[in-house]
Amino acid sequence: HYFNKLTKQEQLSQYADKVFESYKGLPFKVQIDFGVLLQRKLDGDNYEYSCRIPSLDNAFKHQLSTITDKKSLEQFKVDTFKYLREVMERSYDDTKNLIVGIFNVMFATYKLIDTGARMPYLDKHVKYHSVHYIDSDYKICFFIALSYKIRSEIDTKVNNNSVVTFAKQLFAYYYRIKGKYQLFEYLYNDKAKKDQSLNNYLQDYQGFNISTEMTQFIDTFNLVVNIYTYHEELEGKTGQYRLFNSYGQINNESMTLDLLLISDGSVQHVMYVSNVEKLTGVLICPYCHDYATILSDTNKRANEYFNTHVKKCKSSNHEPSIRLHDVPMPICPAILNHPTIEYLMAYDLMDQFKAQRGFITYDFETLSDQVMKEITDQTTLLSQLHKLSIASTEVYPNRDKSYELIKRCYTLFDELSENYQEQLDRYELPSKSSFVHLWLAQTFESAEEIYQCMKYEDENVPFDKCIKVLGWNSSRFDISLLSDALDCELWTMGVPICSLNNTKSITVTHKKSHMKLQFIDAENLFGPMTLKACVKDYGDKPEHKDVFPYELINSKNWNEVLMKTEPFEYEDFKSQLKGGYSITKDEYDQYLIDFKRFTNRLDYLKYYNINDTEIMVKQLMNLIDTFEQFNIDVLHYISIASCAYATKHYSTYFPSKFNLESDQQQYYEDFDINTDYSNPNPNAKPFELTAGYWKSKCYHYNQQDYNAGRETEKNVTADDLNYYKQLFETSTCSICNAKFTYDNLPSLDRQDNELPHTKDNCLPACVSCNIAHANRDPKITSLHIKMRQYAIKHNLPMTISDERIYKLLRECITGGLAAVFHRENIAGKTHINELTYDEQSNKVMSQDNENVTTHVFALDGNSLYPSSYSSVKNENIPYTDHRMYMAGRSKFYSEKPYVIKNCIDQRKEIFVAKVKGYFPKSEYNNLFALPPIFRNIEIENKEEAIGEYMYSQAQKHSLPMTKKDRKLTTLLDTNGQFMIFNNYYLWLLIDLGFVITDYKAIAVFEKNSAYEPFVRTMMNLRIQSILAGSTKEKFYKLIINSSYGYDTLNTEKFGKMKFLDKAGTF
């Protein structure tokens, strides 16, 4: 349903009513999408405008609502208006394309088909005795399926007649129809056979409506219903039967009903499924319904994993699975997640390290096909984009860090050339392949040569056979143009990272050579900006960006227009989208000079297309050089955030690499692979084996061997407690020679991995060493072990191994949509408003004081972040030796109130604590300017909570008043809840007068200042670049501000503030 010329909110409500009336009271499902005007910010005060018409693809991304009556229709309207408000409040911090106007709306509706009608060809689904179909004169297949399930568990042999009769009883019970046929605790009632009065109801029954009746159905019979669907296009293959949806929650008394839903578009039918695995060819966990594996007689390992999961899932409460390390492990992705650096570090060959300097840049040019096609009476498709050309610049690195460039460009004209088929044959491409396929085939060939230039002479050094292919803003544009060519007979496409309409990375692998091309967006390595801005900010010298009249060329005239030998006229650069000329007169004069070098417009197009790929190279090389000085390989990462994060953690192991001669500091020694770091914590308490710990170990050893198909008869048992208690006290780890302590727990390491956990086959080893030792090169094993010991010695950040601490920290993350305040402030005119609390009347008064507004200021959290995590000493910090220490590995977790109170009061430890408290009313007037407790809380839309004015406005606009909203807000107490604070935050609150009334939990960590070298170095390098007038200043700012991207608060949803003048507001 399309409605154009949308100008008012009331119209949207009226259009929704029209759609509702068209269904004449019948239930239906609906999704919605809007035609929007988009504004994209360019350089300076320049903007680019475009429009997006509503489509089914976009509608599918919105929430699917079921409309059954007027009440559900009104709720749909409320949700729609709320979505529109959120969209219109977005800023350029949220998106590159702001929605600045909405001009039409599309409702996509789906008729809800009642289930129950008989259908032909159902018999083909009844196979392997896993699907059961009983014919009936009535549309009660849902109740027949439930009846079959119940009777099959009661009766030795299921009788079809008794199943149908019992289904009628279930039908009567569900719809509360009284009579002799009523249900008695799922018992068969023989009198129902002879009672004919029920038939009147059955004959008029039109079928079961899944969307409107399922909730009552599962509540009535305490069911969990899993509905599977059939996909005819996958006939005979795994996946032809798939889980469509699950309804209900598992509990101790619930029954699971598996159904197969068959539909021909007009009628639907369900059948009982007794064996889901046989139906789908997939093993599905019967408890969580999330874990699955392909049913196979050959893949025994997959079956073992599945059985292990089912056992764990059976005893769990079905919360989301959290996979943590058994013991804290070191965090250094620049080494441990990079096989090449990991190998060089393990073999003490880091002097041979070289960053990847070979890559390929690419760019598309398109033509616009003005189709003006009427899709419906009210919708017209204006234009479609088609591929015109693709260009690439290949970078071949030399040993001395110089490089050679090879530039290529393929166009639609190539497909018209006489030797085009010969070119396809050379690469064994199908005859119908496009010029993009040809470019990809050539790019794979070039990638092989670039790989040979970059790989190490020593064949033992692992080096991924993968070349990066970078486009600018390609995640939203170029990848979509490439998508139809990424899967073909010669190569295959991997799973994209992120969504298909915003693909951060996608890898394509050649089936013969196994060469991989990883397509990533170069913009993600620099931050959101235009290519022109990147060239200006990160290049050594300004590059000339050429011009081209995109809107002149379309699918009908491209051949004729591009073969002309004269340059484009200035009028050709007139843009309908920009409402004027896309270039200035000076730029056009420069274009005329440039065009003299070319024979025709096609040659200029190729030059223009190639130039957009070539100008990316210098900026990328500068970025590679900037990180290489710290032994970081930029092209191993897909974003500046992940790269900077890796650099930050690398600095904690090699602080000297981040110690400038101009700012020499005393730091701890660098990590050295040849140094012994065993027993890093000499004060740790020696480990003493207990019966409970040993019994648990023996159980897991037996389970591990049993699942792997190994004999368990001679395994270690609980009776060996005294033997291993003495062994762990007197011996050391067989791998690293460290003593066993409560910081360094023992385990048994099998010497022959084909044999079980027997006394003869096992030696004592640290749990961490056992993990690191698993099927690895001995040198790399030693690296992992020593890095962990080094991290413990210097209290460096480590992974979390305690699920309680993990959950506490997850709960500590605060963010969300904040309340929006609209206030006009005019310098020299508007009085400053302040809130005052009157304790006698227990009211807050808002009043203007005598002071007048002169300036508006905002706090920049991003710039403050490096100051807080640097741990640099500052006399203004009143806690922990005037430093803000960062957390290392966890020390302990406690829920004892006196332990929590002592940690808070002593002000020595680094911790997060869960407490409840408030500020006394006597402090209110000191805190009203900025209430210090920031929290995302659930707010009820009650008058006493949101105020008389807001409450009346909400009622006036028919907003739901019973619904709760979550908002980021500022508080003067913990809202009657337990809230989590880190140590510095909590101490500040206490110093401001905060009173703690209850203690819930605390997690205490080792403290460190390990990030100081990283922050100091990047800040000093930035300062030096500013003084020297170098553009590298931008790099260091980028590195510092994005280094928190992987391990701290997600700031994109945290308290955005937008300050506007009157013109910008209205």
Task: Give a nutshell description of this structure.
This protein is an alpha+beta fold and about 1050 residues long. Helices cover about 35% and strands about 20% of the residues.
Give a structural overview:
This protein folds into 6 domains: about 110 residues, Dna Ligase, domain 1 (2-Layer Sandwich), CATH 3.30.1490; about 160 residues, Cathepsin B, Chain A, CATH 3.90.70; about 140 residues, Herpes Virus-1, CATH 3.30.40; about 280 residues; about 130 residues, no CATH class; about 35 residues, no CATH class. The C terminus is likely disordered. It contains 33 helices and 31 strands. The strands form 9 sheets. A 7-stranded mixed beta sheet has the order 15-14-13-16-19-18-17. A hairpin with a 4-residue loop joins β9 and β10. The chain is globular, with a radius of gyration of 34 Å. The chain is α+β, with helices and mostly antiparallel strands and about 1050 residues long. InterPro entries: DNA/RNA_pol_sf. It comes from Streblomastix strix. This is DNA-directed DNA polymerase.
